[in-house]
Amino acid sequence: MSATNKVYLVYDKECPACNMYCTMARIRADIGELVLVDARQGGPVMAAITKAGLDIDQGMVVMVGETIYYGSDAVHVLALMSTNRGFFNRLSYQCFRSKRISHLMYPFLRACRNLLLKLLGKTKINNLGLASNDKF
What we know:
alpha+beta; 44% helix
């Protein structure tokens, strides 16, 4: 891949844990440019996710070209694209480089996110329920 390729990382910016994870994530320059997309803002990337029938409240998304990675597959592919720079990216790689371990850990992480949003009084994004809305 050339450095001009864009890798979209779609997440909930209002979730402090999601926001921290996504803003600290880095990918190798030979992969392309990591573009963070706040799922609450809608737009063409969110429209593609909604059209694919993916509930953004149940999993983050990494989109490379036309390929959409969802939930545990998203953290796994992001780990494989990550840099070796910094403690966070090395730890993320170690935790999620295995597809099996990613699949085992992701439901727990999603449950923590949902609990955190509830404790903070944040609403869910509900992209599938709002599919008829122009926002998505």
